[in-house]
C-alpha cells in the first residue's frame, strides 16, 4: 500500500473493527510520520481495531532509526517488518508490549523470522499485489505451521469473505488484505488508479522484478501508460523501493493483486468491511451445512456396510 494507505484509510479501517496498516515510507520525512502517528492515535479509542505500522528493514532504508524512535513514542500495537530481518525492531516494539510480525515470501525467510522471535508472520503468497510471493497460500500456511505456533496472517488474492473463511479453515489466524482496499473512498490512490482497479481483472496483471528489483504484481494498463511493454520489461534492476526513478514506480506504475476481480465500485471502508463480514458468515454457514451432510453420509455408509456384513 505504498503511497496509498494514509491516516484516513488506517482510521477508517480501525473504526470498522479491523486492523489498519500503513508503510512508514508513505511519509516522506520523519516529521510527517510524527504527524500521521499523532493523528491516528488521537482518533482511535480502545474499542477500535489495532493500527499497524509497516516498516522496511532493508539496508537501503536509511531512515529506519528515526522511524523506530517514533514507533517507540506512539506504540502501534502491531509492527510489520518487510524486505529485511525483523531483528532491528523487535527489542523496541516488545519493550512496550507490542507485537512484531514479519512479512515473509518463502519458507526460508519464515524460518529465519521464527528464529528471530517474531510474534507472527504475514505470509505473502501467490496472487498478492505489489511485492508478491510464489507459494500457494494453503501450502504456505501448512509448512509454516510445522515449526511456528505464533500468529499467521496470509495474503495473496484474498478479496472476499469466502477467501477469508478458507484461509482460517486452512490454519491462518487472520488475513492480510491490500488490493481490496485500493479503491476505498479513504484510499490515497489516484482516481485513475481506483478506476483501473474497478475495471481490471487478474488477466490484466504481470509479475516482474524489472521495476523495483523484487518480483511485484503490476497492472498492465499502467505499464502501457508509462510507455513500457508489459510483455518485454527486461530483467531485474538494482533493488530500489522508493517512489523515485525514471519509471516513477508506485506513483504512475500501479500494483494490484489477483483479488481485484471482486472490486466493482469505489466504496467507503465501512461498506467494504460489512460486505466482507456478510460473505464470511455465509461461507462459514455453507461449510457447516456441507460438513453436516458429510457426517450424515458417513453414518449412511457405515449402516449400509454393517447391513451388508450381516447378510
UniProtKB/TrEMBL annotation:
Alphabetized GO MF terms: monooxygenase activity
Transmembrane regions listed in the UniProt entry: none
Alphabetical UniProt keywords: Flavoprotein, FMN, Monooxygenase, Oxidoreductase
Classification via InterPro entries: Aldolase_TIM, NMO
Family statement drawn from the similarity comment of this UniProt entry: Belongs to the nitronate monooxygenase family. NMO class I subfamily.
Gene3D superfamilies linked: Aldolase class I (3.20.20.70)
Species of the source: Brevundimonas terrae
Cross-referenced Pfam families: NMO
Protein name: Nitronate monooxygenase family protein
